[in-house]
Amino acid sequence: MRLNDDEQAMRDGRDGPAVAKAMDLLVRYGEALGAERLVDTRNVAGTVSATTPFMRDFALQKGGMDAVFSEFNLDSAEVVTIPPVKVFSTHLQLGFDPQQPARMGVAEEVINFYRKGEGYTAGLGVQLTNTCTPYQVGNVPTRGEHCAWMESSAVIYCNSVLGARTNTEGRESTGAAMLTGKIPYWGYHLDVNRRGTHLVELDIDVLSTFEWGLLGYWIGEIVQERVPVVVGRGGSFAQVPNLQRLKHFGASASSSGGVEMYHLVGVTPEAPSVEQAFGGNRIVQTLRYGAAERQAAWDKLNVTAKDREVDYVMLGCPHYNLEQIWEACRLLEGRKVHANCSLWIFTPRAIKAVADQNGYTKIIEDAGGVLMSDSCSAMSRAIPKGTRVTALDSAKHAHYLPAIMGVQAWFGTTADCIDAACTGRWNGRLA
Amino acid sequence: MSDVAETKIVIRGRKVVGGVAEGEALVTRDRVSGWGGIDPRTGTIIETRHELRGVSFAGKVLVFPGAKGSSGWSNQFHLTRLMGVAPAAMLFNEMTTKIALGAVVTHAPAMTDFDVDPLTVIATGDWVRVDADNGVVEITRR
């Protein structure tokens, strides 16, 4: 790897030992990739928190949160003093909702330790957005902007919808990027890797958020980590998909596969036409999506579901935005969550503040549900006690939660899920 | 040694993380998931439909196509090192940011870009010596 004078000075210790450790890690990581150089970034989305008992014990034994940052964000066993971050950095989702720990079964001492850590994180200048959807709470990169983001559903949104540039970074590389403003220039930072590989032609219109989730799940399973180019039925999309639809589409495709970048012809910024989306690439495979493929995706997502008595409905993966909370409230208004069922909805804390203000939190609570923030059931491994059967409107959660928690999962529309919460029974089907 | 005939195969590749290590091979054709795919306390693969579900890679030379899944990959393998259950070495074919960073923070020798696909010449149970510094993998059939 070639370092410029500024990068070499950081590596040599000009900006202190923590920055030197960060640069050392970036060089080791860049060489592992086969990258030739680093690129400047002013936008990081990562995690530096300690929300598990293991991390708390590690901090207590090794020297506090500086020790956690040194080991888990810089790959340094030597504990170095961490300076404030150099570039704008937003924090991803946590291992629990710090405002509702009891509900999630989190021990008091873990919460107390977390609160100290929260002060530390804010002191470094990391923004406590605590969400898997930085782009919903003000971190909206510009087209072409080089970023260093973690979280697969955020990475795919950043690359595909916003046209900004990031690879799927990890906890250590985002920590190093926060302190240096650098990340390896590799993968999706380069034009050549952003071009399409697979053509997907739609034989049916894909309109609702639910349908976009099915399509994403089907595509991801086939193309794995390649770059799909999707063309609407008859050459254009009947309706331009909005944020919640593309959020669900990307989260699905990056769960069944490892998709980090896609193109929707006529919609996403690097795909004004099929030709431009492929940028001269040979088309590896042409796929068609119709009724049979849609059914196959639905079957896979519901493979764990057997029993129709639903114990737990979780909404908000990726974190709900205001439009989705509003929609859920309209479905919920005048109804009550069934005595044998729980309803938890997850959103970023900033959006929850508006939901509080708009009266949505009260509508949800009056119905017997809960609006939570900062986390989700897969991250926290927290579900209501005794849950055997869940209902989810997120393909990503339907993919992960049964594996992580050993529960059954029904996947359906938001309306199906709200109905399950209020009746305690799953009546959803593929219409 | 014994009267059992031993065959030695040598393949060459590119260093991802330097160092020399040897151990028994654990080979899978399934990609490996980090977060939600392994238990970092035991080094065991936990993914529901993985062919190595329930098998630990602790101290083994892990031979696999590459990484998949969440961006928590590196952190989960980082944890295996701290828990003393990391693989002895990693040999893989597909380069991604997940696996590059994960290999770096695991600190075990790691290699990729081989002249011969390691999945075709290494079998579980073979004894494998990985000299990542020199880009050489020596396989002894068991």
Description:
The complex is a heterodimer of chains A (431) and B (142). Chain A is α/β, with parallel strands linked by helices and 431 residues long. Chain A is built from 18 helices and 14 strands. Chain A folds into three domains: 187 residues, Aconitase, domain 3 (2-Layer Sandwich); 106 residues, no CATH class; 122 residues, Aconitase, domain 3 (2-Layer Sandwich). In chain A, strands 12-11-10-13-14 form a five-stranded parallel beta sheet, with helices on both faces. A four-stranded parallel beta sheet of chain A has the order 8-7-6-9. A three-stranded parallel beta sheet of chain A has the order 3-2-4, covered by helices on one side. In chain A, helix 9 runs parallel beside helix 10. Chain A starts with a helix and ends in an 8-residue tail after the last helix. Chain B has 142 residues and is of the alpha/beta class. Chain B contains three helices and twelve strands, in the order E-E-E-E-E-E-E-E-H-E-H-E-H-E-E. The model of chain B has no long low-confidence stretch (mean pLDDT 94). Chain B has a single domain, classed as Phosphohistidine domain (Glucose Oxidase, domain 1), CATH 3.50.30.10. In chain B, the strands form three sheets. Chain B has an eight-stranded mixed beta sheet. A two-stranded parallel sheet of chain B has the order 4-8. At the A-B interface, helix 2, helix 7 and helix 17 of A face strand 2, helix 1 and helix 2 of B.
